[in-house]
Amino acid sequence: MNLLILGRGKTGSLVAEVAAERKHHVRVVTSQENPARAALTPETLQAFDAVIDFTTPHAVLVHIEACVKAGKNMVVGTTGWYKDIDQIRALVEQHKTGFLYAPNFSIGVNLFLEVARAASAALRHDYSGQIFERHHAHKKDAPSGTAIAIQHAIREASGHKENVEIISFREGDVVGLHEVVLESPADRIYLCHDAKSRRGFAEGAVRAAEWLAGKKGFHDFRDVWREL
Ligand SMILES: NC(=O)c1ccc[n+]([C@@H]2O[C@H](COP(=O)([O-])OP(=O)(O)OC[C@H]3O[C@@H](n4cnc5c(N)ncnc54)[C@H](OP(=O)(O)O)[C@@H]3O)[C@@H](O)[C@H]2O)c1
Protein backbone atom coordinates (compact mmCIF):
# COMPACT_ATOMS: atom_id res chain seq x y z
CA MET A 1 0.00 0.00 0.00
CA ASN A 2 0.95 3.65 -0.37
CA LEU A 3 0.68 4.99 3.16
CA LEU A 4 0.82 8.59 4.33
CA ILE A 5 1.82 8.84 7.97
CA LEU A 6 1.05 12.07 9.80
CA GLY A 7 3.46 12.82 12.65
CA ARG A 8 7.10 11.83 13.01
CA GLY A 9 6.94 11.69 16.79
CA LYS A 10 7.61 8.78 19.13
CA THR A 11 4.85 6.59 17.68
CA GLY A 12 4.57 7.91 14.09
CA SER A 13 8.29 7.17 13.47
CA LEU A 14 7.85 3.58 14.61
CA VAL A 15 4.67 3.19 12.51
CA ALA A 16 6.73 4.25 9.46
CA GLU A 17 9.44 1.72 10.36
CA VAL A 18 6.95 -1.15 10.79
CA ALA A 19 5.08 -0.20 7.57
CA ALA A 20 8.34 -0.27 5.60
CA GLU A 21 9.23 -3.66 7.13
CA ARG A 22 5.83 -4.90 5.95
CA LYS A 23 6.75 -3.77 2.41
CA HIS A 24 4.48 -0.73 2.19
CA HIS A 25 5.52 2.50 0.50
CA VAL A 26 5.67 5.13 3.18
CA ARG A 27 5.69 8.91 3.23
CA VAL A 28 5.85 10.70 6.57
CA VAL A 29 4.62 14.28 7.00
CA THR A 30 5.89 16.36 9.92
CA SER A 31 4.25 19.39 11.54
CA GLN A 32 6.63 21.72 9.65
CA GLU A 33 5.52 20.30 6.30
CA ASN A 34 1.86 20.54 7.25
CA PRO A 35 1.00 24.07 8.47
CA ALA A 36 -2.78 24.61 8.28
CA ARG A 37 -3.03 21.04 6.86
CA ALA A 38 -1.16 22.16 3.71
CA ALA A 39 0.00 18.59 3.00
CA LEU A 40 -3.58 17.31 2.94
CA THR A 41 -5.15 18.68 -0.24
CA PRO A 42 -7.24 16.36 -2.46
CA GLU A 43 -4.38 16.51 -5.02
CA THR A 44 -1.60 15.54 -2.59
CA LEU A 45 -3.76 12.81 -1.05
CA GLN A 46 -4.57 11.23 -4.39
CA ALA A 47 -1.40 9.15 -4.46
CA PHE A 48 -2.16 7.36 -1.15
CA ASP A 49 -4.29 4.35 -0.27
CA ALA A 50 -4.67 5.39 3.37
CA VAL A 51 -3.53 7.95 5.95
CA ILE A 52 -2.36 7.02 9.46
CA ASP A 53 -2.46 9.78 12.11
CA PHE A 54 -0.28 9.87 15.25
CA THR A 55 -0.13 13.63 15.90
CA THR A 56 -1.81 15.71 18.61
CA PRO A 57 -5.35 16.18 19.96
CA HIS A 58 -5.09 19.77 18.70
CA ALA A 59 -4.23 18.84 15.08
CA VAL A 60 -6.12 15.61 14.51
CA LEU A 61 -9.63 16.92 13.84
CA VAL A 62 -8.59 19.10 10.90
CA HIS A 63 -6.57 16.17 9.52
CA ILE A 64 -9.60 13.89 9.75
CA GLU A 65 -11.82 16.45 8.09
CA ALA A 66 -9.38 17.00 5.20
CA CYS A 67 -8.78 13.28 4.57
CA VAL A 68 -12.41 12.18 4.86
CA LYS A 69 -13.63 15.00 2.60
CA ALA A 70 -10.99 13.91 0.05
CA GLY A 71 -12.41 10.36 0.23
CA LYS A 72 -9.31 8.82 1.86
CA ASN A 73 -9.38 5.87 4.21
CA MET A 74 -7.91 6.74 7.58
CA VAL A 75 -6.46 5.02 10.65
CA VAL A 76 -6.37 7.31 13.70
CA GLY A 77 -4.18 6.52 16.69
CA THR A 78 -4.15 10.06 18.07
CA THR A 79 -6.26 10.36 21.23
CA GLY A 80 -8.03 13.26 22.94
CA TRP A 81 -10.74 13.97 20.30
CA TYR A 82 -13.49 11.57 21.34
CA LYS A 83 -15.98 14.24 22.44
CA ASP A 84 -16.36 14.89 18.68
CA ILE A 85 -16.78 11.22 17.79
CA ASP A 86 -20.45 11.44 16.73
CA GLN A 87 -19.71 14.30 14.37
CA ILE A 88 -16.76 12.39 12.84
CA ARG A 89 -18.82 9.22 12.44
CA ALA A 90 -21.45 11.26 10.56
CA LEU A 91 -18.78 12.83 8.33
CA VAL A 92 -17.32 9.39 7.48
CA GLU A 93 -20.77 8.03 6.67
CA GLN A 94 -21.61 11.07 4.56
CA HIS A 95 -18.42 10.73 2.46
CA LYS A 96 -18.55 6.90 2.38
CA THR A 97 -14.90 6.44 3.34
CA GLY A 98 -13.27 3.85 5.61
CA PHE A 99 -12.21 4.98 9.09
CA LEU A 100 -10.65 2.93 11.90
CA TYR A 101 -9.63 4.35 15.27
CA ALA A 102 -8.34 3.09 18.58
CA PRO A 103 -7.18 4.67 21.79
CA ASN A 104 -4.73 1.78 21.81
CA PHE A 105 -3.68 -0.36 18.84
CA SER A 106 -1.87 -3.04 20.84
CA ILE A 107 -3.40 -6.51 20.81
CA GLY A 108 -2.43 -6.87 24.50
CA VAL A 109 -4.47 -3.85 25.59
CA ASN A 110 -7.46 -5.01 23.58
CA LEU A 111 -7.23 -8.38 25.36
CA PHE A 112 -6.89 -6.47 28.63
CA LEU A 113 -10.19 -4.70 27.87
CA GLU A 114 -11.85 -8.12 27.66
CA VAL A 115 -10.31 -9.10 31.00
CA ALA A 116 -11.55 -5.84 32.56
CA ARG A 117 -15.03 -6.47 31.13
CA ALA A 118 -15.11 -9.95 32.69
CA ALA A 119 -13.81 -8.67 36.03
CA SER A 120 -16.39 -5.87 36.16
CA ALA A 121 -18.90 -8.44 37.49
CA ALA A 122 -17.21 -7.68 40.84
CA LEU A 123 -19.05 -4.31 40.88
CA ARG A 124 -22.35 -6.17 41.13
CA HIS A 125 -21.06 -7.69 44.38
CA ASP A 126 -19.32 -5.94 47.24
CA TYR A 127 -16.47 -4.35 45.25
CA SER A 128 -15.56 -0.80 44.31
CA GLY A 129 -13.23 -0.06 41.38
CA GLN A 130 -10.47 2.37 40.41
CA ILE A 131 -8.33 2.77 37.28
CA PHE A 132 -4.74 4.00 37.56
CA GLU A 133 -2.82 5.10 34.46
CA ARG A 134 0.82 6.21 34.16
CA HIS A 135 2.43 7.80 31.10
CA HIS A 136 5.55 9.83 30.22
CA ALA A 137 5.63 13.48 31.29
CA HIS A 138 5.12 14.79 27.70
CA LYS A 139 1.75 13.15 27.10
CA LYS A 140 -0.71 15.91 26.20
CA ASP A 141 -4.07 14.40 27.23
CA ALA A 142 -5.22 13.06 30.61
CA PRO A 143 -6.82 10.71 31.39
CA SER A 144 -5.39 8.54 28.63
CA GLY A 145 -7.70 7.38 25.82
CA THR A 146 -6.96 3.80 26.94
CA ALA A 147 -8.04 4.53 30.53
CA ILE A 148 -11.29 6.02 29.22
CA ALA A 149 -11.82 2.92 27.05
CA ILE A 150 -11.30 0.67 30.11
CA GLN A 151 -13.74 2.84 32.07
CA HIS A 152 -16.39 2.53 29.33
CA ALA A 153 -15.83 -1.22 29.04
CA ILE A 154 -16.33 -1.66 32.80
CA ARG A 155 -19.44 0.55 32.85
CA GLU A 156 -20.98 -1.27 29.87
CA ALA A 157 -20.20 -4.77 31.17
CA SER A 158 -21.18 -4.12 34.80
CA GLY A 159 -24.43 -2.33 33.97
CA HIS A 160 -23.46 0.39 36.49
CA LYS A 161 -24.56 3.93 35.69
CA GLU A 162 -21.55 5.53 37.38
CA ASN A 163 -18.03 5.41 35.99
CA VAL A 164 -15.20 4.07 38.12
CA GLU A 165 -12.68 6.78 38.96
CA ILE A 166 -9.51 7.25 36.84
CA ILE A 167 -6.32 8.48 38.52
CA SER A 168 -3.60 9.73 36.13
CA PHE A 169 0.14 10.05 36.74
CA ARG A 170 2.60 11.75 34.35
CA GLU A 171 6.23 10.91 35.04
CA GLY A 172 9.55 10.03 33.40
CA ASP A 173 9.38 8.02 30.18
CA VAL A 174 6.65 5.50 31.05
CA VAL A 175 5.29 4.13 27.73
CA GLY A 176 1.86 3.27 29.17
CA LEU A 177 0.81 1.47 32.35
CA HIS A 178 -2.87 0.76 33.11
CA GLU A 179 -4.15 -0.86 36.28
CA VAL A 180 -7.65 -1.80 37.38
CA VAL A 181 -8.06 -2.34 41.12
CA LEU A 182 -11.26 -3.91 42.45
CA GLU A 183 -11.57 -3.81 46.20
CA SER A 184 -13.96 -5.43 48.67
CA PRO A 185 -13.81 -5.54 52.47
CA ALA A 186 -12.38 -9.07 52.11
CA ASP A 187 -9.85 -8.82 49.27
CA ARG A 188 -8.38 -6.89 46.35
CA ILE A 189 -8.07 -7.81 42.65
CA TYR A 190 -5.26 -6.20 40.64
CA LEU A 191 -5.24 -6.21 36.83
CA CYS A 192 -2.31 -4.60 35.06
CA HIS A 193 -1.12 -3.96 31.49
CA ASP A 194 2.39 -2.54 31.12
CA ALA A 195 3.56 -1.55 27.61
CA LYS A 196 7.31 -2.30 27.30
CA SER A 197 7.68 -0.34 24.05
CA ARG A 198 5.61 1.41 21.37
CA ARG A 199 6.11 -1.48 18.96
CA GLY A 200 2.70 -3.04 19.76
CA PHE A 201 0.89 0.22 18.91
CA ALA A 202 2.79 0.59 15.63
CA GLU A 203 2.21 -2.99 14.48
CA GLY A 204 -1.49 -2.77 15.34
CA ALA A 205 -1.89 0.51 13.43
CA VAL A 206 -0.20 -0.80 10.26
CA ARG A 207 -2.17 -4.04 10.35
CA ALA A 208 -5.32 -1.95 10.90
CA ALA A 209 -4.56 -0.01 7.68
CA GLU A 210 -4.13 -3.33 5.84
CA TRP A 211 -7.49 -4.56 7.23
CA LEU A 212 -9.22 -1.31 6.18
CA ALA A 213 -8.10 -1.58 2.51
CA GLY A 214 -11.16 -1.61 0.26
CA LYS A 215 -13.57 -1.19 3.20
CA LYS A 216 -15.92 1.65 4.11
CA GLY A 217 -17.58 2.71 7.34
CA PHE A 218 -16.63 3.84 10.83
CA HIS A 219 -14.79 1.12 12.81
CA ASP A 220 -13.49 0.74 16.34
CA PHE A 221 -10.33 -1.43 16.58
CA ARG A 222 -11.80 -3.31 19.55
CA ASP A 223 -14.28 -4.90 17.09
CA VAL A 224 -11.58 -5.67 14.52
CA TRP A 225 -8.38 -6.89 16.21
CA ARG A 226 -9.49 -10.53 16.33
CA GLU A 227 -9.66 -10.57 12.52
CA LEU A 228 -6.01 -9.48 12.04
N1 LIG B 1 -3.72 4.51 19.63
C1 LIG B 1 -2.54 4.09 20.08
O1 LIG B 1 -2.21 2.89 20.08
C2 LIG B 1 -1.56 5.11 20.59
C3 LIG B 1 -0.28 4.75 21.01
C4 LIG B 1 0.63 5.75 21.36
C5 LIG B 1 0.25 7.09 21.30
N2 LIG B 1 -1.01 7.41 20.90
C6 LIG B 1 -1.46 8.78 20.73
O2 LIG B 1 -0.86 9.25 19.52
C7 LIG B 1 -0.57 10.64 19.62
C8 LIG B 1 0.93 10.84 19.35
O3 LIG B 1 1.67 10.24 20.39
P1 LIG B 1 3.27 10.30 20.43
O4 LIG B 1 3.66 9.69 21.73
O5 LIG B 1 3.83 9.75 19.17
O6 LIG B 1 3.48 11.88 20.50
P2 LIG B 1 4.71 12.77 20.00
O7 LIG B 1 6.00 12.03 20.15
O8 LIG B 1 4.57 14.11 20.67
O9 LIG B 1 4.45 12.94 18.43
C9 LIG B 1 3.45 13.75 17.88
C10 LIG B 1 4.01 14.26 16.57
O10 LIG B 1 2.98 14.86 15.79
C11 LIG B 1 3.57 15.94 15.10
N3 LIG B 1 2.54 16.86 14.60
C12 LIG B 1 1.81 17.77 15.30
N4 LIG B 1 0.96 18.41 14.48
C13 LIG B 1 1.17 17.89 13.24
C14 LIG B 1 0.61 18.14 11.96
N5 LIG B 1 -0.34 19.07 11.79
N6 LIG B 1 1.05 17.43 10.89
C15 LIG B 1 2.02 16.49 11.03
N7 LIG B 1 2.61 16.22 12.23
C16 LIG B 1 2.17 16.91 13.31
C17 LIG B 1 4.48 16.57 16.14
O11 LIG B 1 5.44 17.40 15.53
P3 LIG B 1 6.03 18.69 16.36
O12 LIG B 1 6.68 18.14 17.57
O13 LIG B 1 6.94 19.31 15.37
O14 LIG B 1 4.81 19.53 16.68
C18 LIG B 1 5.11 15.32 16.76
O15 LIG B 1 6.26 14.91 16.06
C19 LIG B 1 -1.05 11.05 21.01
O16 LIG B 1 -2.37 11.53 20.91
C20 LIG B 1 -1.03 9.75 21.79
O17 LIG B 1 -1.96 9.74 22.88
C21 LIG B 1 -1.92 6.45 20.57
Q: What's the overall average pLDDT, rounded? A: 96
Q: Roughly how much helix do the residues carry, as a percent range?
A: 25-40%
H/E series: EHEHEHEHEHEHEEEHE
Which overall shape is indicated by the principal axes computed on the Cα atoms?
A: elongated
In total, how many beta strands?
Answer: 10
Outline the low-pLDDT stretches.
Answer: none
Give a list of the ligands: NADP nicotinamide-adenine-dinucleotide phosphate
Give an account of the 3D structure:
The structure is a single chain. With 228 residues, this protein is an alpha/beta fold. 36% of the residues lie in helices and 24% in strands. The chain contains seven helices and ten strands. The strands form two sheets. It has a six-stranded parallel beta sheet with strand order 2-1-3-4-5-10, sandwiched between helices. A four-stranded mixed beta sheet has the order 7-6-8-9, covered by helices on one side. Strand 3, helix 3 and strand 4 (73-76) form a beta-alpha-beta unit. It is elongated, with a radius of gyration of 18 Å. The protein binds NADP nicotinamide-adenine-dinucleotide phosphate. NADP nicotinamide-adenine-dinucleotide phosphate (NAP) binds next to helix 1 and helix 3.
